[in-house]
Amino acid sequence: MSDKRILLIVGGGISAFKSLELVRGLRKAGIAVRPILTAAGAQFVTPLSLGALCEDKVYSELFSLTDEAEMGHIQLSRQADLVVVVPATADLMARAVHGLANDLATTVLLATDKPVLMAPAMNVRMWDHAATRRNFAQLQADGVQMIGPVEGDMACGEFGLGRMAEPEEILAAILARLAPLARPLTGRRAIVTAGPTAEPIDPVRVLTNRSSGKQGFAIAGALASLGAEVILVAGPVSLATPAGVTRVDVETARDMLAACQAALPADIAVCVAAVSDWRPESVATTKTKKTVQGAPVLSLVENPDILATLSQGPARPRLVIGFAAETDQVETYAQAKLARKGCDWIIANDVSIAGTMGGDDNAVAILRKDGIERWPRTSKTDVARKLAETIALELS
Ligand code: CTP
Region 226-233: what's the mean pLDDT? Predict the structure, then answer.
């Protein structure tokens, strides 16, 4: 971890003193910590103790001429591998949700292109307030990773949810976040299907659908970043191949199945593709023309089910995962698919929500034979990262 850098924002809450213990743990792990202390944070810890433990200058002022000359606020946010907010107070979270930039901490949160991890801490009533719950959910949806809060005794004498996670727990989350280095899927092979299929009607026309391929490509990339050897079997989409992924481009469902079977054996199969259920029974060899007899009638036949074939085939990957994009009765249909296809997990998502199909966000639930886990709406990249981590855990 000696090449890793954290930008640590210390907010104004009684648990700010625990940030000092976190800094000690980070420094012990060889991680460089550059501190930002908010004005409220400085009411709880002194710049002197924070700076001494970080062995770095403490940044507090947005409009400091010397700080800006040495290290502009945009630079501050760019040089870190991870931005950590400890404690994330109700006020800091509320300002971050709205993209306010009225002090150095919020400006950095707005300007950063690095992952952000927050450890919320506040009084139980403040935590329970609808505004905080909305802000918390929105920050998660924006891709912020939350650690805690936990239940316990509070400095104000009350008991409940709102207590900050312990420094060891925050440290563990930071180390895990910084550790694509650990690459837990090294030595595993994964097949991912993505995008739509296109079933020819004649030389110029196809039957296809609106799948963008974004979620499947993100999953292929996330599995590769955890060390897996990934074969991405992609229908016709114009997306860049994620780093470290081997891509096989196909058009039809039958080609997609053949490419998947050629990629076996594998430890993991994730079928994200929106495979066309049917294809025209026969493909015209020349362009179909308009005639006085009226519109042609398309006769369709069913395509092979790639997910079911991989799930039930002889070289079954150890973990087979399907997707269920539904517009209604999402979890009921997904449950039925889990049983029918014979896969291990179904990731259900509601594509009736505007912006899901073709968009950048997704709200999914993971259905397993023994239960269901619902994830809050977040970016497709974040869904992919969490899914890859869940897969790594399952296979560990
Ligand atoms: N799937 C597949 N091959 C097919 C159809 C679907 O591999 N011919 C996979 C998809 O990649 C997805 C899962 O099966 O992982 C569910 O796809 P979906 O289209 O939702 O299910 P269908 O079986 O087509 O069921 P229905 O159309 O009735 O919803």
Answer: 96
Cite the DSSP H helix spans in 29-123: 47-54, 65-70, 73-78, 90-97, 104-111
Ligand 1 centre to CA of 263 (Å) is 20
- Higher-pLDDT residue of 178, 237: 237
The reply to whether 156 belongs to the active site is yes
| Ranges assigned E (strand) in 66-188 | 82-88, 116-120, 145-146, 150-153, 159-163
How many CB atoms sit inside 10 A of residue 112's CB? 17
Q: Rounded to whole angstroms, what are the CA distances from 206 to 210, 253, 288, 295?
A: 13, 12, 12, 16
Chain center to CA of 240:
18
Give the integer Cα–Cα distance in Å for 124 and 149.
Answer: 10
CA distance 41 to 35: 11
Task: Note whether 163 and 148 are within 8 A (CB).
Answer: yes
Side-chain-side CA neighbours of residue 291 (13 Å)? 7
CA distances from 282 to 199, 206, 256, 274, 300 (A): 10, 12, 19, 21, 8
- pLDDT (tens digit per residue) in 54-70: 999 999 988 776 666 66
Fold of 5-181: Rossmann fold (3.40.50)
Is the CB of residue 388 less than 8 Å from the CB of residue 190?
A: no
Give, using CA atoms, the residue closest to atom 25 of ligand 1.
337
Peptide bond preceding 196: is omega within 30 degrees of 0, i.e. cis? no
CATH number for the domain formed by residue range(s) 189-395: 3.40.50.10300
Beginning with the edge strand found earlier in the chain, give each strand of the sheet holding 371-374 in spatial order: 245-249, 229-234, 189-194, 268-271, 319-326, 345-350, 364-368, 371-374
Q: Treating both helix axes as pointing N-terminal to C-terminal, what angle do 130-141 and 90-97 enclose, rounded to 10 degrees?
A: 50
Domain boundaries, the chain: 5-181, 189-395
Amino acid at 118: M
Higher pLDDT, 352 or 222: 222
pLDDT at position 75: 79
List pocket residues of ligand 1, CB cut-off 6 Å.
Answer: 193, 253, 271, 273, 275, 277, 303, 305-307, 322-325, 337
